[in-house]
Every structure is written in structure tokens, then in C-alpha cells.
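Let's inspect one such protein example.
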Amino acid sequence: MLCPAPVRPSLRARLLVPGALAAFAGAVVLLAVLHLDRRLAPLDPVSSMLSDYALSPGRWMWDGALLLTSSGSALLLVALYRRGLLANPALVAAKALWCVSLLAVALFAKDPQGGAITATGKIHLYASAVTCLSLPVVGWALGRRHRDDPRWRRFATWSRRLALAAIPFYLPFIVPFAVNVVFGGHLPTVATGLVERLMMVLEIALLAVLGHWAHRAMRPARVSYATA
């Protein structure tokens, strides 16, 4: 006789997604405080880039937000992989690259505006470029892969939408960067800070969708077993 039996993930597995979401929530709180308290960061959110927080008195909060986002993303990566949602090695590598590049952005501060170009500043610049692109690529590819699965169609749709919405905000950053690297000039950008912040909101929303998706996938599955 075949009887359904629930298969419950281990306690450690069940804590992956709550841990990731808690880390993301902590990062959002730190970023909100930085934006609201001008004593910690006297910056214009329209013109100042997010990396300028690393040069402000509230640098520890900026670094803390990046570390929380990176660690939460690593937990989310494990959760998505364990449930078979993120099985493609290239996507796993891209998600891991997102985690590592966030750490690099925190560890290597940007060069002050108008100051000398340093190796640390270059590492920060390249890590920022990878950070901006890697998560939207993962969100789009993950949504595309599961778009026809009736269990995950809604999550897949939102994952693709948020990823595609974030990519245009990446262009005002990467196009001047590429032009300046290739031609050695200085192509100015307009309202870079605002563009970055809009992209940040979209990427946080994408992380929340992926977290909710992983939570649903971590629910106990039911399997059948035979009894005499």
C-alpha cells in the first residue's frame, strides 16, 4: 500500500531562508539610517554615489550593510541550490560572484573624487560593476528557466521583471565606465546617485522575491513509500 509521508528538511536547512531574510532586513535598516541621518553621512542622495558612504563617518554602517547582504545572499544561494532551483553551474557561479563582489566593495574603498587613482580604488570599481550586473543576470535566468513550471510561475515572472527593470539602471554606470576605459577620457554621468539608489531598491526587491521563492521551495515535500 502506498502512503504519503512528509519529508522535513533538517533544522539547519530550515534556518537558511529566515537567516537570509533577517540579514537583508538588517542591511535595509542600516541603509535607511545612513540616508536619513545626515550626521552619519552628509551626502546628497541624488548626486552622491552609494560608495561615497565608505568615505563618511557612517562607514561602519555601509560596510555592515554590504556584509549582511553578502552573507544573506550566500545563505540564499545554498537554499536555492539545495531545492534544485539554482542547479545550473553558471548561475551558481554568478550568484557566488555577487556575494564575493559585495565583500570586495566593502573591503576596498573607492578613491575620493578628484584624488589619485589607486589599486584599491580600481578593485572597488571593478567589483562594483560585477555587483550591479550579476544579481539581475541570475534573477532573469532563474525566472526564465522556471517560467513554465506551474509551481513557480508567479515567482519566475517577478524574478524576470525585477531583473529586467534593474538592468537599464546599470547602463548609466557601465557606459561611461567603458568609454573612459577604452578612450581614456571622462564621460560625465547625470544623477548617478539617484540611478544607483533606484537600482539598489530593485535588487533588494529581487532578493526578497528569491527569498520567498526559496522559502516556498523549502516546505516539506511528500513522497510515497510502500508498506506490507
Remarks:
- The longest strand covers residues 2-7.
- The beta strands are 2-7, 221-226.
- The domain at 12-218 is CATH 1.20.1070 (Rhopdopsin 7-helix transmembrane proteins).
